[in-house]
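dude i think i finally got it to work??
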Amino acid sequence: MQFTLSLLDIVIWPSVVVGLCLLLRNPLIRLLPLAKKLKYKDFEMEFGEELKAANREARQAFPELVSDKKAQLIASVENLPNSAILNAWNEVEDEAGALLKSQNPALELNTETPYKHMGELLVMGGHLDIAKGKLFTELRRLRNKVAHAKDFQVGRAEAIQYVELCFQLKGHLGRGI
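look at this
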């Protein structure tokens, strides 16, 4: 009896840990990219700022590695479709903001939601026709759904189409400066 209790005492904790890891596997996998530091006994890994610094150094040392933003976003769609959508929208927003600022340097856009009225301003200023203004608004709505809807996931094909549309709109806005 003592032997059985000792054996259970030795086996039960590792079994509980393995069971919890299996049970929480998916949530843990989703949290791993957000980790800044991982440490277990003598093993330690740091992410985030060091990775960004290494990326900047690599771009300076190897300028041929720097490709266009559209290709990077389309490549990232495979693993991070929602992130690709958010970054593609940022490209449109930046281009629209630059165009509006070039036409009216005194223009103050709301820093928290600058794109809310950008579509209207671009249509009123003649930079976008009505159809492209509706596209701007629809792309903004889709971006907001991806950014704010809980557990909303976009498929690979839809994300690629979104990125393509964003860069078409960005190109059109870029010709207006």
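The chain has a mean pLDDT of 80.
im so relieved honestly
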